[in-house]
Write a structure and sequence with these properties.
The complex is a heterodimer of chains A (526) and B (434). By secondary structure, chain A is mainly alpha-helical. Helix content of chain A is 57%, strand content 2%. In chain B, helix 5 runs antiparallel to helix 6 and helix 8 crosses helix 9. The chains are: A mainly alpha (526), B alpha+beta (434).
């Protein structure tokens, strides 16, 4: 056969096929044909002859069998819901489903395991690993792409991962070691520091956040002189969070030359109690904008450039404040956060608020975040150009959700929502608490009726932008009874066509998502 | 019927999901069933009358949906799956529809008969003669084309544009030999597809040469083989003739699996059946414009009772449904070959009688799927193994967990393309390329 194929491949004009020697040649006797035809027929008969004589492959060993499952599989309906989710649609719902399966002590059915092991988002993998069952580990061990599922379940040798693994896995291993033995983790970093690339050095500094203590101060101070600005930024961020560090002292000393004095309100105690709401009854902070930055400034506050449209001085005020733990100001001036915040009114209000917002995020200071949010939410002039609002948004998860709930409850009669509230809700990660969830659902009902009655809002509809995020963040407890939003719209007498057009698909999708989540909750009983 | 089975009837996954949602008793007014049908009124933005003929799973609904079957029909099947509907007398709108359906095929048939009496048998014979000579002319041209190809060398085929094959395929269509055109289109995928592609291409061309040779000597062949050759070239018997004169077999037919090819704006579906009593394999071939539904519905893993009429041939495999009766039930057992060798013996007997069959159904009992180095295989208890085609088969391996399962596949002459498995009395479809 090979000789036939060779002749046919290079072309019979160059190589003649063998004369005979094929078991099927006898069948061709008789008619006169040209050589090409002869070759084709010989090949055809040989192909059929081969096909009819095909034998089984032998010498293949039996694979090891998978161990018995210890967990029950989820229902067929859940499997049906999971299939498209595993293919990459709606990661938030997938996470909810996986977590719930894990809580319920269930696993995904065998037919879904390749899809589950093929989940692309790294962040979902720990949740997937919990619901793979015995068959999942057995299967993962056969495919190198699925090694992560084997690794997270068995005991891993972090040290060899650190020494030989790919960059992301090295950092994961480093963080794990930092949880157990912070000093060992630091020593790993110090050993290889000089030979690592800038990106890796930055990630390594970032990993020191796990188990961070004053033990790392000396190392981080040295990292402030690193060649790469991103490494310096990462080091500065961590140093600022060490309250006893020399860096924190320098930061406070620098900031004190800017926030010089606090003067209590003229009206005495009554004015203080009235809080920030009324001009004239608040205290006053004297601000001295910093002069040209010196070498220490450049070293301690690397990177970050002023945003477009932000003045040099204003930028430096907010930058200097951003690394100081806000609680230090309470100690320094002996006043509550809300009083200091209301005292910020004046020429430098926006940079002060922005700096404090950054600082409360950095130090995860909740008692500052709430009044800061209220102040920024109520800022009279447009904060967008300053991007103060963007900074405020980063505080979302520090805020008490009851604040957001009451902001929704206080919306006007037509239910219209300011875009600042909608962007804050979008930045608030799920699952939301029941209080906020209920307020949102009630507010949405009010808004849909409002649209029917009063028509659409001018421009963008802030509700519409936050609805997709809300649909996956609402508390599980509040899903029951949260249905039929589209019907409210359809049932209203005479909403205008463009209101229907704008809101109809959004509400339909909202209803569908809640329905899907309700079904998951019902199908996976805890 | 299983949840997946019902979902597979839906034209797309959205309809399946919507139908699933409707499969709760709250959505329905007075649903019911009889031996042959399901019905109910579905409450939506309007009330729709939905009915399903259980003998062939045909769905009729009064809704205006362009998708067929619509979500209401799928919903009714889901509802019946959840808890069987009460057996009650059918309302008029159901019995009327069933009666109309029962009358339908006969009407068509009598129309065909009328057509037959009108046309002049002499003219008909002349037309058939003319077609045969057109096909013969087309095959002559094909032979020259193939001879040129081997003279210049198959290696040159690796650098040819797609039009090189497509032009030739279109010529075959024009010569009224669509079967040959389809073979050419399959061959056009071979160049550079694997290291041994020239060998595989020569195989395919060789078989084509055998086919054209056989066509030229039709008169010398036994009638069944001559029928096979005509069918392979693309001159099949008209369906009416098969229904009237084809060999009829009544049985409980297990729906083994389906394969749908979507190419050239035409969807082709092969449904493989196996008679529980007769142990005969059958293939129902259906065509539909892409997007349109297939006329006849089969759910893999169920049993359809009915009578088939087979197209004549050296190994009659292709068939049409003459009548379907009774309710589609679930198959729990799959009769199959216990060893790979036994299956290969069976396959070579068929190859010996009809060498041009491109696909054969394969049912193998108690085989273990495995990955051996880079090869995907199934292995029987004696150690005999066959390679699988169609990419990766992790789902198959995961379902098996190293334990034996019953496999349904298409035998492509050297490899098996898995279509479904049965484990623990449950049928599961296997979609390719997983």
């Amino acid at each position: 056969m090979e000789a036939l194929t060779r002749a046919a491949t290079v072309g019979m004009s160059r190589e003649a096929p063998p004369e005979g020697g094929l078991p099927t040649d006898g069948l061709l006797a008789g008619a006169q044909r040209n050589p090409e035809r002869e070759l084709l027929l010989r090949a055809g008969m040989l192909a059929v002859y081969d096909a009819a004589g095909r034998r089984a492959k032998t010498g293949v060993g039996m694979p090891a069998t998978a161990p018995e499952e210890t967990m029950p599989a989820c229902s067929a309906r859940v499997a049906e819901i999971l299939r498209p989710l595993l293919a990459g649609q709606r990661p938030e719902i997938l996470r909810e489903a996986l977590d719930r399966l894990h809580l319920a002590g269930m696993r995904v059915p065998h037919a879904l395991l390749p899809a589950a092991l093929g989940v692309q988002q790294q962040g979902l993998r720990p949740a997937v690993a919990h619901v793979l069952g015995e068959r999942g580990s057995w299967l993962a061990a056969q495919n190198l792409d699925w090694e992560w599922a084997v690794a997270t379940r068995g005991s891993v040798d972090d040290e060899s991962t650190w020494e030989e693994g790919p960059p992301e896995e090295r950092i994961v291993a480093l963080r794990r070691v930092r949880e157990r033995e912070p000093a060992l983790g630091l020593s790993w970093v110090e050993e290889t520091w000089k030979s690592e690339k800038a990106d890796t050095r930055k990630a390594m500094v970032g990993a020191l956040e796990t188990g961070l203590s004053s033990q790392e101060e000396a190392f981080l101070e040295r990292a402030l002189d690193d060649r790469s600005v991103r490494v310096r930024e990462a080091a500065a961020t961590l140093l600022a969070r060490l309250p006893e560090s020399d860096y924190a002292g320098r930061a406070m000393a620098r900031a004190r030359t800017i926030l010089v004095r606090y003067e209590p309100p003229a009206g005495g105690l009554r004015g203080v109690a009235a809080g920030f709401s009324r001009r004239g009854h608040t205290g006053r902070i004297s601000v001295e904008p910093p002069e040209h930055p010196d070498a220490e400034w450049e070293r301690d506050l690397p990177g970050a450039m002023p945003e477009r449209g932000v003045g040099e001085k204003a930028w430096r005020i907010s930058r200097a404040l951003s690394v100081v733990e806000p609680a230090r100001w309470e100690e320094r001036f002996g006043v509550a956060p809300s009083d200091l915040i209301s005292a910020a009114r004046g020429d430098w209000e926006v940079p002060l608020l922005a700096g404090w917002c950054r600082a409360s995020v950095l130090h995860r200071n909740q008692s500052w975040a709430a009044p800061l949010w209220r102040a920024c939410y109520g800022l009279e002039h447009d904060p967008e150009g300053w991007q103060t609002w963007q900074v405020t948004l980063s505080m979302a998860d520090l805020l008490p959700q009851s604040d957001l709930a009451s902001a929704i409850t206080r919306l006007p009669k037509n239910g219209e929502m300011p875009s600042r509230l909608s962007s804050m809700l979008q930045a608030t990660s799920g699952p939301w608490l029941p209080e906020l969830s209920e307020a949102f659902l009630e507010g949405l009902r009010r808004r849909v009726r409002g649209v029917c009655k009063y028509g659409l809002a001018q421009g963008e509809e802030p509700w519409v932008t936050v609805i997709p995020h809300a649909s996956v963040s609402l508390a599980t407890e509040c899903l029951r009874g949260a249905e039929g939003f589209r019907e409210i719209l359809e049932g209203c007498s005479g909403p205008q066509d463009h209101a229907r057009y704008r809101w109809g698909p959004v509400l339909k999708r909202f209803d569908e998502t809640l329905e899907l989540r309700r079904e998951l909750v019902e199908e996976i009983p805890l | 019927m299983s949840v997946e089975g019902v979902a597979a009837l839906a034209p797309d996954s959205r309809v399946a999901a919507a139908g699933r949602k409707l499969g709760v008793s709250g959505s329905w007014n007075s649903p019911g069933r009889s031996d042959g049908a399901l019905w109910g009124e579905c409450k939506g933005s309007a009330v729709y009358q939905v009915r399903v003929d259980l003998s062939d799973l045909a769905v009729k609904c009064s809704c205006p949906s362009r998708k067929h079957p619509c979500k209401h029909g799928i919903g009714l099947l889901f509802l019946n799956l959840e808890s069987p509907l009460p057996t009650v007398p059918a309302p008029d709108w159901v019995t009327d529809w069933l009666a109309r359906r029962a009358a339908g095929p006969k009407r068509r048939k009598s129309a065909a008969k009328r057509g037959g009496t009108v046309s002049d048998p002499e003219a008909k014979a002349k037309r058939a003669e003319k077609r045969l000579s057109r096909v013969a002319g087309g095959l002559d041209a094909l032979d020259l084309w193939m001879e040129d190809l081997v003279r210049d060398g198959l290696a040159t085929a690796g650098t040819r544009p797609a039009s090189f094959w497509e032009t030739q395929a279109k010529r075959m269509v024009d010569a009224q030999a669509p079967g040959v055109a389809a073979r050419l289109r399959h061959l056009s995928a071979l160049p550079n597809s694997s290291p041994d592609w020239t060998g595989r291409l020569l195989d395919g061309l060789g078989r084509l040469a055998l086919l054209s040779e056989a066509f030229r000597r039709l008169d010398a062949l036994d009638e069944p083989l001559a029928e096979s050759v005509r069918a392979e070239v693309g001159i099949p018997l008209p369906q009416e003739a098969v229904l009237d004169r084809g060999e009829r077999v009544s049985d409980d037919w297990i729906v083994l699996g389906q394969r749908t090819d979507d190419e050239w704006r035409l969807r082709t579906r092969r449904t493989w059946l196996l008679g529980g009593e007769s142990r005969r394999y059958a293939m129902i071939l259906q065509f539909a414009a892409s997007g349109a539904p297939f006329a006849e519905q089969f759910v893999s893993g169920t049993i359809v009772s009915g009578e088939l009429a087979f197209y004549p041939g050296a190994y009659p495999l292709r068939a049409v449904v003459r009548s379907r009766a009774g309710v589609a039930t679930r198959a729990v057992e799959l009769p199959g070959h216990r060893t790979v060798e036994a299956f290969l013996d069976h396959a070579s007997t068929i190859t010996a009688s009809q060498p041009w069959l491109e696909w054969l159904p394969a049912t193998l009992s108690g085989v273990v799927p495995l990955l051996d180095g880079e090869r995907w295989l199934v292995r029987d208890q004696d150690g005999g193994a066959l390679p699988l085609s169609g990419g990766e088969h992790w789902t198959l391996i995961s379902i098996s967990g190293g334990h034996p399962l019953d496999l349904v596949a298409e035998w492509e002459g050297g490899t098996l393309l898995p279509l479904g498995v049965v484990t623990g009395g449950r049928y599961r479809m296997i979609q390719g390329h997983e």
